[in-house]
């Protein structure tokens, strides 16, 4: 049993019934009650980005009503832990406001998710402890501070998600505008190619190594301007119908 619970501080001399409720792992953030009035609060340190493991901190409520922390006397370590959570949230909130790329926002999201869950579970553990000792004013104050951190962490996660969705929508609009410009340029180039298409076709036909009639040989300029005229008619018809269709679609959207 001692070997399995080597993670507990050495100076925690808890009763056997309280120890029997523990296991070989620290587990989630929670409160463990003993039959003799003892209580052990298990909380987690601020999660580090990209590290799934959580460092556990322990606070022991003795039979006589005194609190003993793992690294400092009383509940001072719990105060310091809550302030560490608050500072981590503030740092990420400042980064969200100044983020310019999706990579920066995604990096915040990867940390904001575990941070929000850990802050919520910490608040639930302290809420459970405050219910067990309703007259402990210091414990109630810690619970309320943990609730503030939980709300701030949830808002951080929500703001980061909104910022990422806004970035995606903004990039999608820019890509749509760029595609629209390219489509218009391609349409104009196609019109230009269509304008010279009849002339090119006639030039290719007349340039073949065949005996052409005399009236064809002496009608170069007529054929030239005739081809341009046919191309102009085709471009006018195609451009008019396409522009008319596009204007009707724009009106329907409005």
What sort of overall outline do the alpha carbons produce when their principal axes are compared?
rod-shaped
Give a count of the beta strands, DSSP E runs of length 2 or more: 4
Count of runs of 4 or more consecutive helical residues? 6
Largest sheet: 4 strands, antiparallel
For this structure, the quaternary state is single chain
Q: Mind telling me the C-alpha Rg?
A: 38 Å
The mean pLDDT is 79
Distance between the termini: 74 Å
Low-confidence stretches: none
Strand percentage lies at 5-15%
Structural class: alpha+beta
Strand order, main sheet: write it out: 1-2-3-4
Walk me through this protein's architecture.
The chain has 254 residues and is of the alpha+beta class. The protein has a domain at 183-253. Helix content is 65%, strand content 7%. It contains 6 helices and 4 strands. The protein has helices at residues 16-19, 76-98, 102-132, 137-206, 214-217, 220-253; strands at residues 30-33, 39-44, 56-61, 67-69. It has a 4-stranded antiparallel β-sheet with strand order 1-2-3-4, covered by helices on one side. A hairpin with a 5-residue loop joins strand 1 (30-33) and strand 2. Helix 2 packs antiparallel against helix 3, helix 3 packs antiparallel against helix 4 (137-206) and helix 4 packs antiparallel against helix 6 (220-253). The longest helix is centred in the last third of the chain and has 70 residues, at 137-206. It is rod-shaped. The two termini are 74 Å apart.
């Amino acid at each position: 049993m001692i070997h399995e619970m080597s993670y507990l501080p050495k100076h925690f001399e808890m009763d056997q019934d309280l120890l029997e409720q523990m296991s070989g792992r620290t587990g989630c953030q929670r409160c463990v009650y003993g039959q003799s009035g003892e209580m052990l609060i298990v909380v987690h340190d601020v999660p580090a980005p990209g590290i799934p493991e959580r460092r556990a901190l322990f606070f022991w409520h003795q039979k006589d009503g005194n609190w003993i922390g793992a690294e400092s006397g009383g509940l001072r370590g719990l105060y310091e832990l809550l302030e560490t959570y608050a500072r981590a949230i503030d740092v990420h909130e400042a980064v969200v406001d100044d983020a310019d790329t999706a990579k920066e926002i995604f990096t915040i999201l990867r940390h904001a998710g575990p941070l929000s869950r850990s802050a919520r579970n910490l608040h639930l553990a302290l809420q459970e402890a405050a219910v067990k000792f309703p007259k402990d004013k210091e414990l109630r104050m810690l619970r309320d501070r943990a609730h503030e951190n939980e709300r701030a962490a949830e808002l951080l996660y929500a703001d980061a998600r909104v910022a990422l969705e806004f970035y995606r929508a903004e990039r999608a609009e820019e890509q749509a505008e760029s595609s629209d410009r390219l489509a218009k340029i391609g349409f104009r180039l196609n019109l230009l190619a269509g304008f010279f298409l009849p002339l090119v076709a006639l030039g290719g036909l007349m340039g073949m190594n065949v005996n052409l009639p005399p009236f064809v040989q002496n009608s170069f300029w007529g054929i030239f301007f005739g081809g341009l005229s046919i191309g102009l008619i085709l471009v006018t018809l195609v451009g008019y119908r396409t522009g008319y269709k596009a204007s009707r679609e724009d009106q329907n959207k409005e």
